[in-house]
Design goal:
Blueprint (H helix, E strand, L loop, with lengths): L3 E6 L2 H16 L8 E5 L5 H16 L8 E8 L6 H4 L1 H16 L5 E7 L7 H9 L1 E5 L6 H13 L2 E3 L1 H10 L4 H15 L4 E3 L1 H7 L9 H8 L3 H14 L4 H22 L5 E2 L2 E2 L1 H11 L19 H11 L4 H20 L4 H13 L1
Parallel strand pairs: 1-4, 1-5, 2-3, 3-4, 6-7
Antiparallel strand pairs: 8-9
Helix pairs in contact: 2-4, 6-8, 10-11, 10-12, 11-16, 12-14, 12-15, 15-16
């Protein structure tokens, strides 16, 4: 029997949800509230890491006054991630002391739950925690059913409506991050007011910022909608807060790279695209046939279409149907030309991208 339970993953909302369910189960029969202890594991620096571990040590070593079994949940640990705090020598030293505490825990008197997100799975500390615990990693399988259900609950609670396609747009803007999706829905509900109403795609584009890998989402969406006016408006918004065009060009190239692969697979009839998106069985068959041509690249990358979310590819596939392979190649050449022009005219980057958009979509 392991001394403790360790739950981790990339989505902090789902990790903490799993941790809370387990904590509630283990503490259900306990009468004394002092037998149930929750400690926040969020730390901004090494000093805070030390305070958290000292608090945790005190919690696991202080037994209940009523001789009950105790449950301690170290919740939302952030110092095991690939961050400045997580990489610091001071933090690593404190994590070693945490391991020593966990080794000394008597699970017959104290049950310990650790939840952490994000997590750096390359470190020695992670491997130790994985090996010595009742371990669960919450994988991002691409199944959005639970997130969709949670989103619909928020909509019902706040008397708001959102179509399936608009919800998918919102999810794409925030990288399918559960907590961000739910918080942005609450923000949009507040904007609509107590009477509720409908959240439209226009409202999502206007009020929801881009997060993480989805930076510059609106400008890219606008370009591939082939709507020149929307694209020029999105570029104006981009350059209102950004000075650099090269990250945006990289995003456009990433999207185009996937659409080129999609267009080839569709033309070869290797995958099937229907009303609900790409047929899963045909996609899996195509992956089995062509995966070896990607040189073993299996991490998520726009260089390998088979590492991408199937719903997202279905959305791109519908756009790719209206674009010929020749047109997509011309887009890619235009992006390269724009990049070269930016190097020559670094003070006119907005003008360069506007010229590119007019050339491609005008």
């Amino acid at each position: 029997m392991a001394n403790f339970t360790f739950i981790c993953g990339s989505d902090d909302f789902l990790v903490n949800k799993k941790g809370k369910t387990l904590f509630d189960q283990k503490s259900e029969a306990l009468q004394d509230d002092l037998s149930k202890e929750v400690i926040s594991g969020a730390a901004q620096n090494t000093s805070e890491v030390e305070k958290i571990i000292n608090q945790f040590q005190s919690a696991v070593q202080t037994l209940s006054l009523f001789a009950e079994k105790k449950v301690v949940w170290l919740k939302g640990i952030t110092f095991l991630s690939d961050s400045v705090t997580g990489r610091s020598a001071g933090t690593k030293e404190k994590v070693e002391s945490l391991q020593a505490i966990l080794e000394s825990v008597d699970p017959s008197s104290v049950e310990v739950i650790l939840t952490a997100s994000p997590i750096d799975r390359r470190t020695k500390s992670f491997k130790w925690l994985q090996k010595n615990s009742d371990y669960t990693f919450i994988e991002n399988t691409g199944d959005q059913s639970e997130l969709n259900a949670l989103a619909r609950e928020i909509c019902k609670e706040h008397k708001i409506r959102i179509s399936d396609s608009t919800l998918e747009t919102l999810k794409a803007k925030v990288g399918n991050h559960t907590r961000l999706v739910l918080e942005e829905l609450k923000k949009l509900a507040t904007y609509l007011g107590p009477e509720g109403g409908e959240i439209t795609e226009e409202l999502v584009y206007e009020l929801v910022p881009d997060f993480g890998d989805n930076d510059f989402f609106e400008a890219v969406e606008a370009f591939y909608s082939l709507d020149l006016n929307w694209t020029l408006t999105a570029l104006k918004k981009h350059f209102f807060s950004q000075k650099e065009s090269r990250p945006l060009l990289a995003s456009l190239q990433n999207r185009n790279r996937l659409m080129l692969q999609l267009r080839v697979l569709l033309d070869a009839r290797a995958i099937q695209l229907g009303f609900r998106g790409i047929d899963k069985s045909s996609f899996e068959m195509a992956a089995g046939t062509y995966q070896d041509h990607f040189g073993g690249l299996d991490a998520k990358s726009t260089f390998n279409i088979f590492t991408q979310n199937l719903w997202y590819l279905g959305k791109l596939g519908k756009a790719a149907e209206s674009l010929s392979l020749r047109k997509l190649i011309s887009f890619q050449m235009a992006f390269v030309q724009a990049f070269e022009t930016v190097l020559k005219r670094p003070t006119e980057q907005e003008a360069v991208l506007r010229e590119m958009a007019i050339q491609c979509l005008g």
